[in-house]
Amino acid sequence: MSVLLEVRGISKSFRGLRAVHDASFDIPEGDINALIGPNGAGKTTIFNMIAGVYAPDSGEIRFGGVPIQGLRADQVCAAGIGRTFQIVKPFAGLTVLDNVMVGAFLRERQASAARALATRIVERLGLGAKRDLPASSLTLPDRKRLEVARALATRPRLLLLDEVMAGLRPTECDLMVAVFRELNRADGTTILLIEHVMRAVMALAMHIGVLHHGEVIARGTPEQVVRDPAVLECYLGEEAEV
Amino acid sequence: MSRRSIALAVVGILLVALPLFAGNYALSVATLILYFAYTGQAWNVMMGFAGQLSLGHALYVGVGAYAAGGLFFYYGIGPWAGLWLAIALCVALGLAIGFLAFRFGISGVYFALLTIAFAEFTRIGFDHFGWTGGPGGMFLRVAQRDTWDLANFRGPPLMYYYAMLALTALAFLACSLLLRSKAGYYWQAIRENEEAARALGINAFRWKLLAVAISAAMTAVAGVFFAFYYNNLFPEQIFNISRSIEIILGPVIGGVGTLFGPVLGAAVLTLLSDGITEALGAMGFDIPGVKQVFYGLVLLGVVMFLPHGIWPPIARRLRL
After folding, report:
1. Are residues B199 and A73, on separate chains, in Cβ contact within 8 Å?
2. What global pTM score does this model have?
3. Looking at the complex, does the CB of residue B179 fall below 8 Å from at least one CB of chain A?
4. Over the stretch A10-61, which tens digit does the pLDDT of each residue have?
5. Does A101 touch chain B (CB under 8 A)?
6. Residue where a domain stops, chosen among A125, A155, A185
7. Alpha carbons B231 and B137: distance in angstroms, whole number
8. Do B186 and A91 touch (CB under 8 A)?
9. Fewer Cβ atoms within 10 Å of its own Cβ: the N or the C terminal residue of chain A?
10. What residues of chain B lie within 8 A of the CB of A109, using their CB?
11. Which residues of chain A does B307 touch, with a Cβ-Cβ cutoff of 8 Å?
């Protein structure tokens, strides 16, 4: 399997606070990867550096072999990386379908083609019945789905999911897991997720990276990671049941 | 045909037929309504669609008016050529303001302040340029008023009415097409949440500049109309901030971001304020400033009771 995303020694500090220090990892094409770690470990900072919200202070990020660090968010998206936001950011005044169409216009010039693509994605995420409602009327689980639908409409090769399971009930969480599995299997979309909900991580991830104090302290398959003593100590807790 | 297009057709036919049963005074009021409907539509592209608040749109009216008016006054070049100079200058100005603001991340009220600043210092500048006539004004030759001289845009009130009607209809059509295109979706995304828009591959800087350029170009055309309709231009009047406010009142009261809002708002405001002035006049009162007080009250009422403007509830009620 070829490597789709290479992260090499990236660091980022905010006014002297070291958020991420010398983090490195690879994500193979077609993989589902999870990045876990306690609050404040630097997960979202890493996401934001990949997604072009801000540039790393040092280090390199390559996507499909091309350096992308320092590109703007819209350029990163155009390159083929879609993202969701931890704190959902729907276009509140637009309908569900129009929200998704905005994403679809990245690859489709014509409104009719964008609408067709958006309609398929909205159906796939189970929002079909709500497509003509304003996004502001959606419940939190539906807003999370809308985040995913919008990102998918840009037809990403790599999908970055920032805590899309947080706040979902277990059954809703399982539905999301099924959507991502299907997406990965049918479209070959590579996925990198940040997640606190271990139920989802264990169900989805083929590989896990563990972040602590801005550093990657463990990487491996879910089975390897949950047995890693360093991980148990800093994050899962010794009594963790997975 | 949808209910909406039937309603549009009815309004269109009424407006085209209006001169058959309206005198010159009614026609001049109708022309004024259309003028505000048009400039409101232009302003709405920037604020209503893309969410960029301009409180200095008088800048584009003034520069457009002086560009075409100046060419006519000094060189006898008609408005059809002057139009392009007016558009080019206003687009350049809009892009310059937009570039400064968006490049350095100025948004919201600070962006609005920047637009006021540009309109104000252009007003002061035009007061001091020799070729504009300064505070003394620039006066365009008023020629025959009874024949249609389309080449020089000189003619009876009927001609100005139909010209303004054509402009308003074109602007309405253009805006409805824009709103349904990629540009419209991208602008609305930027308006609703710029960070989320960027994450979907939208180069916000470029699309905001496009909105400013289109809005400025449309407003420039209104300026050319203004110059040849009123025939006299004073920097103090044309660039005045109250002109900018007048432009935005229509869409604000009608419904920001809607297609019908600017048209409806312009009609309601102009008719009511004219009506009140007339009624007070008939009763023997002549109170200066009554129009401003009236605008203030209407604005207050709309903001309090219909924060999205008067069009959205009407559209719901009539199922348009």
Report:
1. yes
2. 0.92
3. no
4. 999 998 888 999 999 999 999 999 999 888 888 999 999 999 999 999 999 9
5. yes
6. A155
7. 10
8. no
9. N
10. 182
11. none
Pick B199's closest partner by Cβ from A83, A92, A93.
A83
Residue A234 host element (H or E): none
Interface test with B, best of A102, A106, A138 (most B CBs within 10 A): A102
Q: Are residues A64 and A164 in the same domain?
A: yes
Contact B271, B262 (CB under 8 A): no
Q: Does A27 touch chain B (CB under 8 A)?
A: no
Q: Do A102 and B200 touch (CB under 8 A)?
A: yes
Q: Could you tell me the sign of the dihedral formed by the alpha carbons of B234, B235, B236, B242, in that order?
A: positive
Residue B186 to residue A105, Cβ atoms within 8 A? yes
pLDDT at B234 > cutoff 70: yes
Residue type, B269: L
Contact assessment for residue B233 and residue B138, using Cβ atoms and an 8 Å cutoff = yes
pLDDT at A236: 64
Q: Do A90 and B193 touch (CB under 8 A)?
A: yes
Q: Based on the domain organization, do A206 and A217 belong to the same domain? A: yes
Residue that finishes a domain, picked among A133, A155, A177: A155
Lowest mean pLDDT among A138-152, A220-234, B254-268: A220-234
**Confidence class for position B75, pLDDT limits 50, 70, 90:** very high
- Separation of alpha carbons A35 and B29, rounded Å: 66
Phi and psi based region of residue A132 (left: phi greater than 0; alpha: psi -120 to 50; beta: remaining): alpha
Structure tokens at A50: 């990949």
Give the Cα separation of A83 and B249 in Å (integer). Answer: 39
How does pLDDT run across A109-152, given as a tens digit for each residue?
999 999 999 999 999 999 999 999 999 999 999 999 999 999 99
Mean pLDDT of the residues in chain B: 92
Give Cβ neighbours of residue B292 (< 8 Å, ≥ 6 apart): B242
Q: CA-CA distance, A151 to B136, in Å (whole number)?
A: 58
Range of A28's domain?
3-80+158-236
Distance CA B94, CA B122 (A): 13
Model confidence at B237, in pLDDT bands (50, 70, 90)?
Answer: very high
- Terminal-residue alpha carbon distance, chain A: 28
Confidence category of residue A208, pLDDT binned at 50, 70, 90: very high
Closest residue in chain A to residue B196, using alpha carbons only: A89
pLDDT at A230: 82
Tell me: pLDDT of B274 over 90: no
Chain B residue nearest residue A160, CA to CA:
B199
- Residue A7, domain CATH: 3.40.50.300
Give the separation between CA A115 and CA A96, rounded to whole angstroms: 11
pLDDT of res. A127: 93
**Structure tokens of B175?**
């805006």
The DSSP symbol for A205 reads -
